[in-house]
Structure prediction request, 82 residues.
Amino acid sequence: MADRYQVGFIHHYRELGREIFGQANYDRRVLEDVRLDKEDFEKAEQSGVEFDEPIYGIDIEFLQHILEQKKENLSQFNVYKR
Prediction:
């Protein structure tokens, strides 16, 4: 549908209970999907994040920061492009 109307989109997704957090970008027939992996969630936990707060206690801003770092270094991480 995006190709038909010549538009792009950004989709933020998260399912913290299953350690899913990422962003999909579609622009000019290219899909980039950047997501955090298990090591990123472990990093968040080691950085002093407690898991007894609402939303499993994960600091969303910290996870977003890690995701932004990954987006800046796309060539070094597992990014799906189509």
Observations:
- The chain has three helices and four strands.
- The beta strands are 9-15, 20-27, 30-35, 80-81.
- The mean pLDDT is 80.
- The first strand starts at residue 9 and ends at 15.
